[in-house]
Amino acid sequence: MLTDNELLELEELLKLEQIDKARGNLIDFTKWTFSNYEISDHHRRYANALDKFSRGEIKNLMVFMPPQHGKSELCSRRLPAKLLGDNPELRIALASYNHSFASKFNRDVQRIIDSEEYKRVYLDTRLTGKGFRGENNWLRNSEEFEVINHRGSFITVGVGGGLTGRPVDIGIIDDPYKDAADAWSPTIRQNVQDWYDTVFKTRLHNDSQQLITLTRWHQEDLAGTILKRESEEWYVVIFPAIKIGPPTEDDPREEGTALWESKHSLKRLLSIKKQNSYVFESMYQQNPKPAEGLLFPIEELNRFTMADIKDRNSDGIIAAIDLADKGEDFYCMLIGSIIDRKVYIIDCIFTQEPVEKTEPLTIAMLDKYRPNKCRIESNGAGEMYCRSLKNKCREKGFYVRLDPVFTTANKETRMLLSSGQIKEHMYFRSDYTYNSQYGKFMDNLTGYTLQGKNEHDDAPDTATALIDMILKSSYRRRTDIK
Question: Which InterPro entries match (predicted)?
């Protein structure tokens, strides 16, 4: 029978072991500083990825997880506190969808660092106030604090907020969109992207790390856009609410099982899916696809780089132009090079600029590539535009065959019927610059849905015109398109 003193000594030894573990990894640190934390298997796998991030084994990390599955507790509360315990020299910035929500994370991190449990793990990381002061006036408020006698700091801002003059060693973004309405708004998505590019990313340096954790709402949300332009620079961890496919090392669940059964049962998840399968696929499965599916999913298109075809002979250059019928439509011009019976889209114009700007661009493109034939949709003002192009090309001393074509067939039907030919015989560049006109063309092409309302159809319509032009011309023999 152990005495009271022996029991106390044993209890203290157990605590010392827990403290040692808390220094070693995030999940044990969370258990030590948050005794009521309910841990599921996916929390351990999530924390393991965050540990690799903390050790610098992962430089840029994205984590996609359904709502209310413990995402923020680990990445936005416990992780910053532990990072500053491990290295009180770190300068950490965290952003969320608005100032108030971000500030709450800051106050929570301060409470963790002030706790007695934290002090037993990390002796050297302290904040001003609470009876402890350094030699200088160390900053501490609801948006920012500094670690006493160290360079380290933690600042939180809402998306759109400023970070001027603050170098950042570790940048964290937790849910940059408040809800689906924000994520589905093109204006808000663009504002978030602009802020990331012009504010958040400009505070990083060569050795900085980034952590973005969010619920996927839209294929062109912040994560989707970043991955589209620099996927090779990011490590991505995805936690679908319901497991798809057989068990893997990253996700050992059996197919069809819930991510956190005790909190969000399979029965509840299936009920949510039944109500709105599109929202469920994005919000819970982290697979943001249009509700009706895509006509030209990017994974089904042939891709190439200009370096791939640098030394290959072209059998001819062709072009197609689709005019902007309405004020918000895009003017689209495609330049295709025919190589080995395939059509390589080597260049394009895709813009909402008015005709006084697009016409000089078009003439310059025609002069540069001298296509053997250029098709122009002549509905509306197309025929007049065609005559204007012919005259201005002659004035510049060159000739291009420009064919105005009037179409009466339904656009959607034409695009659907031609989609198989486009996927089989057209090649699209993969080396375009983000936010370039070629990039915008590809976004429009690969975002076009089979059914439902599409804001713009200019890219697939012009691709259809180009493939139709080949099918109905002498190039059909050269390309062997049937």
Answer: Phage_terminase_lsu-like_C
How far is the C-alpha of 91 from the C-alpha of 83, rounded, in Å? Answer: 10
How high is the pLDDT of residue 475? Answer: 47
In this model, does residue 482 exceed pLDDT 50?
Answer: no
* Distance, CA of 30 to CA of 286 (rounded, Å): 26
SS3 427: strand
CA separation, residue 238 to residues 44, 101, 355 (Å):
14, 24, 45
**pLDDT tens, 67-121?**
989 899 999 999 999 999 999 999 999 999 999 999 999 999 999 999 999 999 9
Please give the mean pLDDT across all residues of the chain: 88
Confidence of residue 415 (pLDDT cuts 50, 70, 90): confident
Pick from 168, 139, 143: nearest CA to 157: 143
Residue 465 has which token pair? 């015109």
Going along the chain from its start, the domains and CATH numbers come out as: 38-239 (3.40.50.300), 298-479 (3.30.420.240)
Closest C-alpha among 376, 385, 451 to residue 412: 451
Q: Hey, what are 453's tokens?
A: 């309302």
Tell me the pTM: 0.63
Instruction: Spell out the residues 6+ positions from residue 356 whose beta carbon is closer than 8 angstroms to its own.
Output: none
Quickly list DSSP for 287-298: ----TT-BSS-G
Helix (H, G, I), strand (E, B) or coil at 173: strand
